[in-house]
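Re: that chain you flagged

S.,

Sorry for the slow reply, it's been a week of failed gels. I finally had a moment to sit down with the sequence you sent. For the record, here it is as I used it:
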Amino acid sequence: MTHRLIMALLLALLAACTKPPAPTVATPTPAALAAHSEEFRRGVVEAAPGVFVAIGYGIANSIWIDGPDGALVIDTMESVEAARTVLAAFREHSRKPVRAIIYTHSHPDHVGGAAVFAAEGAGAPVPILAHADVARAMDEIASELQPVITRRSLRMYGHGLPDDERINIGIGPRLALDAGSTVSTLRPTQTFETRLDTTLAGMPVQLVHAPGETEDQLFVWLPEKKLLLPGDNFYRAFPNLYTIRGTRHRDPKRWAASLDAMRALPAELLVPSHTRPVVGHDAIQAALTDYRDAIRYVHDQTLRLMNAGLEPEAIAERMQQLPAHLAASPYLQPFYGKPAWSAKAIFNGALGWYGGDPATLQPLPPRARAERLAALAGGTAKLVEQIEAAAAKQDWPWVLELSSAALQLMPDEARVKQARIAALRALGAAESNPPARDWYFVAARELEGSLKIPSRAVAPTPAMLAAMPLSVFFDGMAVNLHAEDCLDRVIRVVFEFTDSGAQHSYIVRRGASEVVAGRVADADLVVRVGDQAFKEMLAGLRNPALAIARDFEVTTGSTLAFAQFMALFQPPG
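Prediction finished late last night. Pasting the structure tokens below so you have them in one place:
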């Protein structure tokens, strides 16, 4: 190698190592979030002739499209009451009967008011179209995860906060659920796996499976109108590759691929299920491309840093912000998801919960760790002093960390609570991400006792329960079993359902559940009950004690023994 070539290589290496830093982009402020509220200005927008979008009536949009033979409705709001308001607004623009309803996915804010729109079918049954996994996902939320998802969702959406604390929720103005709200979700009547080409309301319509924010997501393409409806795979905020309310892993590669499929279409109008429409092919292409690139950037760079040996928190620290050209996009402001949260979710989805530090393999339990932290501080009194000193310096993250430990040891210590509440409120006031902001403020009010988050926001209607299979209710029983109360017992109960004629055997075997179709031998209890009465009792629409006395006929064993059996499945309060 010549001396000249060596020098050239050295100069190139030096230039690479001394590149100017990438330009930084200012972090959005609460004022920017307040300006973002304009995105949810309430009203029906006619995005194109016969294409009406109800914006600002709840978290999600509902979309009404007039066709030659009637109307097509995409997504139906989160409650019956919100759906009725939206329907009345749509009726100011169209009197056509509803010919079909499409669910873009299974999230409750898209399906809760379906019965309201289905009643507009002019006497003919209205088909409900969705991906094949929608019903399963709806059932899982309703039976196995309902209490925890409800509580976490209400915290994330600022349930019960006054207007001066809650600005908006990033992809909508507010959650349209209040005391007395009802939901009336209908189960899909026509489903597909990969793609469905059909005619609805006299229009050719293409439904395409597009996993992203959910595995059951689809997008809708109306070729004659060059109209694209992306569901929740695109909205005017950085996407929730992870949501702090909790969800199963969302695959960013599949989400980006779904966006690529949409980019391949000659769309002239894009109407998302959150935020306002995008008009014009070039504008749509630019927005979808940036969205796709942001998702791939976070995914690919997270894996690069994982392969370099970094742990989740270190990766999140490096992934606080997108590249400047993406961070400047109005469609990628961190008003819903955050790149750092997404990076940690990607790590967990690829490798699981263990970050690689052996100290976290079998860590001290929270109370034991708190005891040692207090000892390091010089005792609990000194720990409280440290918390108050951090509060005086407005070192709010450190106040939260120390107070989490202190409350393990002193759950009623007023000085600790006062400092923690101050930290939560200060962090909330400075936060421009609505899920984080609202969670801080709700946590502060929960700690001071001025707000209680329920484990159920709304009650299902009897019609909803009637349409749900019995297996959903047995799944719900299984996750409510108090295993510690039956570790030394085996109990076999046969349920004979008088409405459907079905028979199922529920076996509790030393803390574990098994449900068997049909009737097992040597049953300890045999009970007869109507399907609907059984469902309504488990869903909380009937008082359990009264239902057991009135609706259940115990033909083997005693009513008292059956009541004791059902007491093993007490749901969380």
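What I noticed first: Residues 165 and 441 are 7 Å apart (CA to CA).

Talk soon,
D.
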